[in-house]
Specification:
single chain; mainly beta; 6-stranded mixed β-sheet; CVNH domain-containing protein; DUF6636
Length: 135
């Protein structure tokens, strides 16, 4: 009887159940994944085709794609991710232009100008093909 108890202790706590869903802009150029679990939420958005300088300078240790992926928790500043760019354009729900969505700790608005998302602290990003801004 001791062995099952030891096995449970070795496994440690199980992860909390998370709800995950996706959406994209009508152009299919901006794709986002939202994760929500008890007490926290996060959103990661990727802009597939972009022009101009990245929103933030490339870190010296970044040897992958830069300026495409933006990660934000429901509190705190936006992070840009140094990671390979996935260019797939399928499997996402459409967020039509003019739609505002509120979920977890975020509000996002999709318009013909681009996608803007903010968290509870007012941090956020604006993404369009021509401009990417972190605030």
């Amino acid at each position: 009887m001791l062995r099952p108890a030891v096995l449970i202790l070795l496994l440690g706590p199980l992860p909390a159940h998370a709800d995950i869903w996706t959406f994209e802009t009508p152009s299919e150029n901006i794709q986002c994944t939202v994760g929500m679990e008890v007490g926290m939420s996060d959103i990661q958005c990727t802009i597939i085709e972009r022009h101009g300088a990245p929103a933030l300078p490339r870190p010296a240790d970044c040897a992958s794609d830069w300026g495409h992926s933006f990660l934000m928790l429901d509190r705190g500043p936006v992070q840009m991710l140094c990671e390979p760019l996935y260019r797939g354009r399928d499997g996402f729900h459409r967020a039509d232009y003019g739609v505002t969505g509120t979920f977890g700790g975020f509000v996002c608005h999709s318009s013909q100008k681009g996608l803007e998302c903010r968290n509870r602290d007012g941090h956020g990003f604006f993404l369009s093909r021509a401009v990417q801004t972190v605030f």
